[in-house]
Amino acid sequence: MTSTSAAFATARAEGRSALIGYLPAGYPSVEGSIKALQVMVEAGCDAIEIGLPYSDPVMDGPTIQAAAQQALEGGVRTADVLRVVEAVAATGVPTLVMTYWNPIERYGVERWAADLAAAGGAGMITPDITPDYGSAWIAAADAHDLDKVFLVAPSSTDARVAMTAEASRGFVYAAAVMGVTGARDATSDLAGPLVGRVRASGDIPVAVGIGVSNGDQAAEVAAFADGVIVGSAFVRTLLDHAGDEAGGLEALRVLTADLAEGVRRGAR
Predict the structure, then answer these.
(1) Which residue in the list 60, 80, 147, 220 is annotated as catalytic?
(2) pLDDT at 1 over 90
(3) Is residue 59's pLDDT more than 70?
(4) pLDDT at 180
(5) For residue 231, what are the domain limits?
(6) Active site residue 147
(7) Is the confidence at residue 266, as pLDDT, over 80?
(8) Is the pLDDT confidence value at 129 over 90?
(9) Please, what is the average pLDDT of the chain?
(10) For the chain, how many structural domains are there in total?
(11) What is the pLDDT of residue 261?
(12) DSSP class per residue in the chain
């Protein structure tokens, strides 16, 4: 059992979903992102996704784009991302990198897998490659005992859902809203059926990314999903407190605690 699988197993044993939090490395700074992610762990995140800032984030909404762009303008590099991974993984919480494929291809797939494993990373989430085009990553991940998290969407065929469930390790990321990422006022009625389709294809946890921004929404999703993924709401919290580190960290702690209470309130 990998550390990611173990986190889901622990949550399941407690009769609840896992809370997975996302922030891009390097925003508001490298050290600032480490502090923010550590606060999220302390306040209740069961696993962490660290974004590798990229100049062409076609799937990211405006909130994450804004933070990633500021990180890039601040000079963040892949080595910095690995430093953030190392610091967060040291907390004992499974720490994955979420990244588009192009930066990994440029870095070198085998080199990346080796360096990610050496930093204590649990694996990688790849939003823009599918298992049938990800053979290089699958081989490198397997060689270094890293989780491979692929995405499914409401538009995925049953055959593609089954293929993704078979190829993934750690969990399957159910992107249950069509379009770019971002916090939303209501959850999607597409999420439940998508989770059911993945579960019918294999015994692997399914985490839902749906624009959750508060504990009530987290409770809704936790009623049917193994994991609740929150990204834009965390990023927005930091953006809203730009220049106020202490205020931003406290707001992040309050939001995380609310979301952590939500996944427990929505216990299945």
Answers:
(1) 60
(2) no
(3) no
(4) 41
(5) 3-265
(6) no
(7) no
(8) yes
(9) 92
(10) 1
(11) 97
(12) --HHHHHHHHHHHTTSPEEEEEEETTSS-HHHHHHHHHHHHHTT-SEEEEE---S--TT--HHHHHHHHHHHHTT--HHHHHHHHHHHHTTTS-EEEE--HHHHHHH-HHHHHHHHHHTT--EEE-TT--GGG-HHHHHHHHHTT-EEE-EE-TT--HHHHHHHHHH-BS-EEEE-SSSS----SS--TTHHHHHHHHHTT-S--EEEES---SHHHHHHHHTT-SEEEE-HHHHHHHHHTTT-HHHHHHHHHHHHHHHHHHHHHT--
Supply the pLDDT for residue 10.
Answer: 97
Phi, psi of 107 (to 5 degrees): -70, -35
Q: Which of 46, 49, 80, 220 is catalytic?
A: 49
Yes or no: say if 63 and 183 are a contact pair by the CB < 8 Å rule: yes
> Tokens standing for 227?
């994991």
Contact 235, 64 (CB under 8 A): yes
Q: Residue 246: which CATH number?
A: 3.20.20.70
Strand partners, 208: 174, 228
pTM: 0.94
60 is catalytic: yes
Q: What average pLDDT does range 210-238 have in this prediction?
A: 95
